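#struct-help
A.M.: can someone run this one for me? Single chain, 423 residues.
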Amino acid sequence: MSVLVKDAAESITSMTGDELTVLVDRLRWDRRRDPYRGRREYSQTARQVAEECDRLVAEGRADLAVPVLRKAVDRVTRALMYLDDSSGIVGDDLQELMDLYARACTAAPPNPVSLAGWLVKLECDGPGWPRVVLSDFAPALGERGIAEVERLVAERARAADPESWTAAFAVRDLREQLAEVSGDVDRYVAVLAEHLASAVQYQRIAEAQRAAERRDEAIDWARRGVAANPGSPNMDRLRDLLVDLLVAAGDTPGAVRVRREEFTRHPTATAYRSLTDTEATAGGDDPTGWAMGVLRDRITQQPAYASELVDLLLAAGRDDEAWQEALHHRRWLAGSQWQTLLQRRAATHPAEVIQPYRDLVEQAILNSADKRRYRRAVALLPALRAAYQATGEPAAFPRYLAELRTEHKRRPTFLTTLDAAGP
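D.P.: on it. Structure tokens below:
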């Protein structure tokens, strides 16, 4: 049973055909309606439709569920153009209905030509939802339906406006999916290779080659992708895939080189952790000393990397060095990182964090751009009190509070917030 169905009420009894038709009719959404009202009830209706249709499929009556689900998908797809779904709940309901429709079609295939036309129209002319996954519908489409999808996509490709990004994307997506469901790896790779605009395409090619047990080709494509997209936001997954492939091939030195090259290009704590993991797999030396050298060299040119050095030192258990670097490069540390350092330093050197905590309190109070500045300032006081107590001077904290009240006596809202917290 689907997740959507599990979420619906289990007590509903089986409906008659007429009752189900009435229920699906409730999925109509008048564009003149308030987009912010009735969303919860609408979602419940979609879930109820799914539950009833899921029951029909389970009972061997998928032929009754198929037309109902198609109508439900069409109506929810249209409704989402007018109702507010910022939470994504109705969108999830729609995808669940689409997935259930694919299952129902597999159990009771409709006319394959009609199904092919509907899928292509939804992908090419629809608003972008739900996601059309041809592999889910392939059993119902059969050879005849897949051939019709091929024909329709070819027509769309010829008629597509070259200036329309959405039209080009829909055609390309369907062509890639058709190549995938064909089972012809060479065809799939060739189609994907027509649009090598991101690391994702290289990753999909490499994964297809790996699945076909073409490891050398997979490594080659992964290497090409890493080289062609050094700053891609999706590069980490492709690089991880390349490392996994190299390790599987017994080329652990090559895997380590990939990690070191990335750390040299972009020396971050995340890249360091990946490097140490790969070095451990390869049975190599501890790369910490080398990584520290790379980071310190980079900091001379780009001081902002000091925050990465601090994180790396903390990850290596070199807290004292991390503290000294943080003091030296304080301006490059984010507030959350600095507070983490203060918390760790307070455990062993409480006297050293007292003034930094006082500075943070003062900065928060004076930060007029932050509407919650007084609450943020007061939230720091328990840690400061604990630091005073740990130094053996518990009476110093009340004196500090008295000074704070005097200094900010013209800020009644702050004083009220302070009194309410009772630090």
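A.M.: thanks! Residues 343-423 form one domain.
D.P.: also worth noting: Residues 116 and 149 are 5 Å apart (CA to CA).
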